Amino acid sequence: MTDEFEQVFGSVAAGVWAAPGRVNLIGEHTDYNDGFVLPIALPHAVKVAAAPRTDGRLRLYSKQGDDRITDIELGALAPGAPNSWAGYPAGVVWALREAGHQVGGADLYFDSDVPGGAGLSSSAALECATAIAYRDLYQLDLSAAELAVLSQRAENAFVGVPCGVMDQMASACCEDGAALFLDTRDLSWRQVPLRLAEQGLALLVIDTRVKHDLGDGAYAGLRAGCEGAAELLGLAALRDLPEAGLAEALAALPSELAPLVRHVVTEDARVLRAIELLDKGEFAALGPILTAGHASQRDDFAISCAESDLAVRTALAAGALGARQTGGGFGGSVIALVPQELAAAVGTAVHNAFTTAGFTTPVSFLATPSRGAHRLA
């Protein structure tokens, strides 16, 4: 990283930082409803070599980009400009300055092995890598959670994606060997041990290769529907609707909003049930919760796709204990909780099923709960 930084920018990097992508075990589309989520950080990460500048310019280069430097004057930073991948790190710098932090320019060189468009939060990893690098470059007194919130603001207000805070909190705050049980209303969290291998289990991630784009309007429409339903029910957020009152609430809502509410309320309940099981060490019992979560995404939230549904069905038939689409939806990745000895067979079964169906060949890998954003060198 430091050698490549010097080749691109002609100067010496001050350090190298990394921030991971994430897999969400359960708790989909609950974060912007003030609900509960349970993500883990992936070993896959965005890395950034960085050095400060004193001339008020921000220069950005990605090894996965178009082989050119994006050069921006800090005073010209504004929502929507730049509107390429560079908008994510530029948005973080903008958010820091908007929040009153005295930060100048920088040269930033990025390299990533987080699959893009796979529902694994490559954008949050890009934002959080930038945020932690800037924190250290400019000696800012900011916690991991504060970096996450600033990164979310960059994505919401600068890039224009109305995401919740789960992805950034996972990228910034997760720890090795644990899932992050997060209450998105007050940002309280705790690390929940998740050492699957000790129980003979593995988490298989299946990238369906169906690229999703949360900025295309569908995500915003779902969020608006949830917020509109909460307003009709007189609630601050759907998190405040107890599962016991769900049937009565659904009867009072327009038919197009009722399924959204049912998903969010039952998904919050699934997160809490998952926590009970993890606290008791009953990891295998997570399987049916994952599968129920997928059915809710497919039938109530309507954010699944043919490839995701096929991956889930095939994984279950091949011996997975549970499986579901993870991430914002409309494609991306599927996770399957599998006995370790069946992981390869499940991956092969999904690969063969996609070939038979004429779908793009999926990519599978095992995910281990990993560390959040940190300095590498």
From TrEMBL:
Record bears the keyword Cytoplasm: yes
This protein's UniProt keywords: ATP-binding, Carbohydrate metabolism, Cytoplasm, Galactose metabolism, Kinase, Magnesium, Metal-binding, Nucleotide-binding, Transferase
GO biological process, one term: galactose metabolic process
One cellular component term from this protein's GO annotations in UniProt: cytosol
All residue ranges annotated as the GHMP kinase N-terminal domain in the record: 89-173
InterPro entries assigned: Galactokinase, Galactokinase_CS, GalKase_N, GHMP_kinase_C_dom, GHMP_kinase_C_sf, GHMP_kinase_N_dom, GHMP_knse_ATP-bd_CS, Mevalonate/galactokinase
Domain (Galactokinase N-terminal): residue spans on this chain: 4-52
GO molecular function, one term: galactokinase activity
Family according to the record: Belongs to the GHMP kinase family. GalK subfamily.
Record NCBIfam families: gal_kin (TIGR00131)
Protein name listed in UniProt: Galactokinase
Source organism of the structure: Streptomyces tateyamensis
Lineage: Bacteria, Bacillati, Actinomycetota, Actinomycetes, Kitasatosporales
